[in-house]
Design a protein that fits this description.
127 residues; alpha+beta; Nuclear Transport Factor 2, Chain: A; two-stranded antiparallel sheet; 2 helices; flat
């Protein structure tokens, strides 16, 4: 067991956010995934949020995540199709909802196809 029960960690850095995916084990031997979002704020401070998903709940968590990703992909395809029908394929469009809100950018270009992830518990590996 590593520092503070860390078994594995990976980091994804984006423009103003960093995501950490930490696989940890607690004192009782329960393995869990901790997803941490760290975001720069004004000055040198960071805004940090974390969620924890235990090994026993991972399949249900992934089902929910895959369902959400499926919805996003279906919605993106519908937007691309709609944009193609209007003849503005490949163009980016800025839509303003209210004067006080920031503009929302709609991208009509296709995104990468999401990868499917399958998690197999230790119990299933033994069978």
């Amino acid at each position: 067991m590593g520092i503070r029960g860390e078994l594995f960690t990976t980091k994804i850095s984006l423009d103003n956010r960093t995501y950490f995916f930490n696989v940890k084990e607690n004192r009782t031997g329960d393995v869990f995934l901790q997803v941490v979002e760290s975001k720069n704020t004004e000055g040198a401070d960071f805004d940090r949020h974390a969620i924890v998903v235990f090994e026993d709940d991972m399949q249900k968590f992934l089902q929910g995540l895959e369902g959400s990703l499926g919805f996003i992909e279906k919605n993106r395809k519908a937007r691309v199709k709609e944009a193609a029908e209007r003849g503005d394929q490949g163009k980016k469009k800025v839509v303003r909802k209210k004067a006080a809100e920031k503009p929302v950018r709609q991208d009509a270009t296709p995104a990468k196809k999401p990868r499917k992830v399958t998690v197999i518990s230790k119990k299933d590996q033994k069978n």
